[in-house]
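job 3f2a | input accepted
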Amino acid sequence: MTTTSFEDSADYVQSLARGLRVLRAFDRDQPSPSLSQVAESTGLSRAVARRLLLTLQHLGYVGSRGRSFFLTPRVLELGYSYLSSLDLTELAQQSMELLAQRVGESCSMAVLDGSDIVYVLRVPVRRVMSVALGVGARLPAFAASMGRVMLADLSEVELARWLRAQKFRAYTPQTIRTASALKAELRRVREQGYALVVRELEPGLCSIAVPIRAGDGRVVAARNVGMPYSEEAPARAVKQILPALREAQQAIEQAIRRVGWLPHLAMKHAYE
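job 3f2a | predicted structure (272 res):
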């Protein structure tokens, strides 16, 4: 059956095809299109494009800011459209691999999506968590080192709004589980420029993370190194791994500035 004949058949779902066409309207050249731009690039009427965009927004795949729309990390659940439009992983891949080789531990990069962090890049060396982590995996931001360095970039008003939507859970006896304790920890993270999480997500895990900033100073992602917990792990993380992690942080931020990359998705607003 040819494409044309299938589109004329009873099995063809036109609304699904149109919705996917709208998602494909977001790309590197047009990361934050307006309604008119979406309608023009898809060949749909403004009324149809508007209904599809509002539906995708309701489902969490699209966000809006003013008259512009943008993809959210939830699109990762459908595939790699979000990664293709973000393009940040291409800039980070090499430095991530070098970092993993240098420290002999697994390295990851994530973005903030509402209450969670979403993994967008991972270079595994060995498995340190009971759950399998890969691109698209989600972890609670409040208890993850990468989540905390991104949350630390929020203003007091933004953080207060974010906290009101949270339900804290004790993953281990060490988990920070109250808003006041988390705010105190985020102040420490902001001052020192990194987050160290020890046995808060899992008893056998220790991780350290730093933020990744775009050229305009906004934190757009985070990068971490995770390792099995031992009594020596926290000290090793700060004294040995953090310097290497910061060198990798500088490398990716320099690459971002060199190519003039700026996020079409303001990550500090992603929870709205």
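job 3f2a | Strands lie at 62-65, 68-71, 106-113, 116-123, 138-140, 195-198, 205-213, 219-228.
job 3f2a | closed
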